[in-house]
Design goal:
The complex is a heterodimer of chains A (267) and B (199). Chain A is mostly helical and 267 residues long. Chain A contains 10 helices and no strands. Chain A has one domain (8-261): Ferritin (Up-down Bundle). In chain A, 62% of the residues lie in helices and 0% in strands. In chain A, helix 2 (39-67) runs antiparallel to helix 5 (136-164), helix 4 (109-130) runs antiparallel to helix 5 and helix 5 runs antiparallel to helix 6. Chain B folds into 2 domains: 3-100, no CATH class; 124-196, no CATH class. In chain B, strand 5 and strand 6 form a beta hairpin. The model of chain B is unreliable at 1-19 and 133-155 (pLDDT under 50). The chains are: A mainly alpha (267), B alpha+beta (199).
Chain lengths: 267, 199
């Protein structure tokens, strides 16, 4: 493909960033399919994964149109490797604390719920703003995604309160999940060239401008949940700059294996 | 664009421009045929009544474009709907293409009154009106505190049971058998039922 101009490439990178976020969290949360803590939660989590994967599809389709040269939603989701994905590192982490946890019995629902709250409450603000993006297709996707993320925030927020204000054990687990995940949210606010470019051209949102509203929302929910706001210092992860934790490769391996084993297979 | 027919609610009202071989009759015949197509997951409601079928445009010379819009982003029924529409158009002998359009975003407010009634008869409580303002979030509706999950009063939304019409119902889960539904239980007749969520 012809090398896109600087502006076009920032536009594409931004769409891929949004799409990769959605597909990686959709795939991660899909791990609960058939393993949810209770039936209703199993269904809730897979429903939300479906929303996220649907959002990713629309974003990949749009990016593929801009990229041209035979790119499709499938080539972007299944035939890009971990080192070109642009999702936040937060979203690729296993459903577990600091240890690696892939097995079903290693999954901690508090990590799932906390991560969903941190991410979906950010996206509530992002999609709201992107409704007025100068990219009309992105604006259309934002308007749909906003309706869905409202339900996601509500779900995660309700459970966060249940866990925090629940039993001693659920409180501890929720607090531990917060301590574990909160430092990863620093990546939201650290600027990147492609985000700066799309914010300047009216396509994207300057995410750091949403920080105050996001923190207020988090503070309010944590207060109701009797949880403490953890610190957000330390290493700032670089997923959106295409430098990931080891966890993404395992996740993508599983997600991409079928398409790669049977390229262009149809049924 | 030779002929445009919009509005999912009143297919009999046609806006016809000049030219082409598009006649009121052809378009009306297309709408009539498409009326038989139902939502694959809710087979009692037609695509038009659901607000999924948005527009038919074009003419017999150039072929027709049928515009559909997805309900939820990840709705797995969209491909089936796409294929169903194409098959119906083929049966009528028209060249046709199906266009998926995202904006304006589908809303449950577009569902017709007939659709509400059919849903109810089918055992699904229809959505309360005004989706745009009634999806509660902590940010937009501070009165809907997160705490309400644990302490949510019975019949908090007054969603009537589609079986016995009692208002004495409670939400079991925000998420039900499909993305567009929540799971409720009627405390009067003890039946569980789906509630079509405002979107």
């Amino acid at each position: 493909m012809a090398t896109p101009s600087h502006a076009a490439s920032a536009h594409i990178d931004y769409l891929l960033h949004l799409a990769d976020n959605a597909v990686v969290l959709g795939q991660r949360n899909g791990e609960w399919c058939g393993h949810g803590p209770v039936l209703e939660e199993d269904i809730a989590m897979t429903n939300m994964s479906l929303d996220l994967i649907g959002q990713a599809r629309m974003l990949y389709q749009h990016a593929a149109t801009l990229i041209g040269d035979g790119a499709t939603e499938d080539s972007l989701a299944y035939f890009r490797d971990a080192h070109v994905f642009r999702n936040y590192t937060l979203l690729e982490l296993p459903q577990h604390g600091a240890l690696v946890g892939y097995a079903t019995d290693n999954r901690d629902y508090a990590v799932t719920i906390v991560r969903n709250f941190l991410y979906s409450s950010l996206m509530l603000l992002v999609w709201e703003r992107l409704q007025s993006s100068s990219d009309t297709q992105l604006a259309a996707i934002a308007a749909k995604s906003l309706k869905e993320v409202r339900y996601h925030v509500r779900h995660a927020g309700d459970w966060l309160v249940r866990f925090g204000d629940g039993t001693t054990e659920s409180h501890q687990k929720a607090q531990a999940a917060l301590e574990h995940l909160m430092p990863y949210t620093q990546e939201f606010w650290s600027a990147s060239d492609f985000e700066n470019d799309v914010a300047a051209s009216g396509i994207g949102v300057e995410v750091s401008s949403l920080r105050e509203a996001w923190e207020a929302q988090l503070q309010e929910t944590l207060h109701a949940a009797t949880l403490e706001m953890p610190s957000t210092t330390g290493f700032i992860t670089t997923g959106k700059h295409q430098v990931h934790s080891e966890h993404l490769t395992y996740l993508l391996d599983e997600m991409q294996s079928l398409a790669r084993r049977h390229p262009e297979g149809v049924w | 664009m030779n002929a445009v027919l919009s509005s999912s609610r009143e297919p009999e009202v046609l806006a016809i421009a000049d030219g082409g071989l598009a006649t009121e009759k052809v378009l009306s015949e297309i709408w009539q045929t498409l009326e038989a197509l139902t939502d694959p997951e809710i087979p009692v409601v037609s695509l038009r009544e659901m607000g999924i079928l948005r527009e038919v445009r074009g003419d017999t010379l150039q072929g027709f474009e049928v515009v559909i819009t997805p309900t939820y982003s990840g709705c797995p029924a969209m491909e089936q709907i796409h294929d169903d529409v194409l098959a119906a158009m083929r049966q009528l002998g028209h060249k046709a293409r199906v266009v998926t359009q995202l904006a304006p975003a589908w809303t449950t407010d577009w569902m017709t009154a007939e659709a509400h009634e059919k849903l109810r008869a089918y055992g699904i409580a229809p959505p309360l009106a005004c989706a745009s303002s009634s999806t509660p979030t902590h940010t937009h509706a501070p009165q809907t505190q997160v705490l309400t999950f644990a302490k949510r009063p019975i019949a908090n939304h007054n969603i009537a049971c589609p079986q016995c019409a009692s208002d004495n119902t409670t939400e079991i889960s925000h998420f039900g058998s499909t993305a567009c539904k929540a799971l409720y239980k009627c405390l009067a007749c003890q039946e569980t039922f789906d509630y079509f969520k405002p979107y």
